[in-house]
Amino acid sequence: MKRRTFLRTSVAGAGAIAFSGSLWQNAALAAPAQLSPSPYGPLQAANAHGIQLPSGFTSQIVARSGQTVAGTPYTWHNAPDGGACFADGSGWIYVSNAEIGSGGGGCSALRFNSGGSVTSAYSILSGTNRNCAGGKTPWNTWLSCEEVDTGYVYETYPFGGTAAVRRSAMGRFNHEAAAADPVRQVIYLTEDKSDGGLYRFIPVTWGNLSSGTLQVLKAGTGTSGSFTWGTVPDPDGQPTTTRKQVAGMKVFNGGEGCHYANDTVWFTTKGDNRVWQLNLANSTYELAYDDSLVTNGTAPLTGVDNITGSTFGDLYVAEDGGNMEICIITPDDGISVFLRINGQSSSEICGPAFNPAGNRLYFSSQRGTTGSSSGGITYCVTGPFRT
């Protein structure tokens, strides 16, 4: 039984089955993903948007940087980055960060009806710096993270009507992504530095991020093993940065995307093209993917960046560079290409997120065909996704 199949089974049967150490050890020692055929079949020729998709899938452009969103007066932001979807009655909302510095950053939202048409667009955060990725909370807010050395996390409100709030207790460092764990009632945070850490924030009250404890993962130098957490004494990081405060902190090379599901956290590191996996039930970590460990062909995933998951258990990992692809890591530890964008080699793919039904995947090309932050394009792909 492969890793995520095992984890889904364990969650479904929690309370009815007691797992032995050997079973968890087998799950923890599974090999990193290897090249395999896509569950959706081969890529077809590029469509009118320059996107290669499997048969049965289509794409549309929902917004372009510097242009008004169709049917609204709102101008879409430059450099679209991390994003997420939120259920909104029979429709949904997609939020997207703006990775612009010097106070030009922030976050925008697109509201869709049940048919997938945009009904409104608006800002939910402005005046911040390099809002790169972030994470969705169980109470339907979006954590927008600043990717600067003195960056903060801002809690934003996708439905509008409430001003964003800076959550200083979550630490001041080069934030990238966040993922909420409702079981342990913590938020995991990645750090985009070559010697960065992986953090977790434990709020005093779950659902209220105004106060709590910031901790960083501690482990050896290997690519698998056990881990613990150490409390960061000074989350403000002044004068000593958070990643230099705890002895034994495990160093990760350029933390990027982060995703939680079923007692597991997956996060990516761009400096070494890896996807890491934390098995929270037994406090072990391992590699879910490493491009240098693909032994049965050419590694399909390079420039790893944002990551999300489907309800089926597939992981979708976007590339910053590489071949401008979104790749799939399946529950049986296979990796394949889901889509490829042609003619945009100076861009990166950001913000992959599924709508609530799981049949639409939103994402952006941050710099589009121009290679400039003003050329960003936000897409939607529709098709027979596994759910």
| Range of helix content | under 10%
Distance linking N and C termini: 20 Å
Name the CATH superfamily assignment.
TolB, C-terminal domain
CATH architecture: 6 Propeller
Taken together, the total number of domains comes to 1
Anisotropy-based shape: globular
Gyration radius (Cα, Å) is 20 Å
Which structural class should the secondary elements be placed in? Answer: mainly beta
CATH class: Mainly Beta
How many runs of DSSP E, i.e. beta strands? Answer: 28
| β-sheet strand percentage | 35-45%
Keywords: Signal
InterPro entries: PhoX (IPR008557), TAT_signal (IPR006311)
Signal peptide: 1-30
Protein name: DUF839 domain-containing protein
Question: What does this entry look like structurally?
Answer:
By secondary structure, the protein is mainly beta. It has one domain: Neuraminidase (6 Propeller). It has two helices and 28 strands. Strands 1, 2, 22, 23, 24 and 25 form a six-stranded mixed beta sheet that branches. Strands 12-13-14-15-17 form a five-stranded antiparallel beta sheet, with no helix packed on it. A five-stranded antiparallel beta sheet has the order 16-21-20-19-18, with no helix packed on it. Strand 10 and strand 11 form a beta hairpin. The longest helix is centred in the first third of the chain and has 10 residues, at 3-12. The two termini are 20 Å apart.
